[in-house]
Predict the structure.
Amino acid sequence: MERARELHLFLLERLDGLPEQTGQASIDLSRVDDIDACGCQLLALFLESVKRRGSTPVIVATPAALSERIEALGFRDLLASPPEP
């Protein structure tokens, strides 16, 4: 939590460095091992920033354990991955 502001600014800087695009933007969580409530909030803010830029963020490749953690923290609806085909 003590680095939340710093991490949020980092994410926004990275996003600002990308060209603006419309359509879907894949957010790959395959290398995320764990997340806490603060991390879920940061991810939700990042997704909103992507939306404001005109893209539709889609969370992909979420490990099962991470999905369970997100659900346990109460962020399932906000940070849900699309169903597997």
About this structure: The CA atoms of residues 22 and 55 lie 5 Å apart. The chain is about 45% helix and 15% strand.
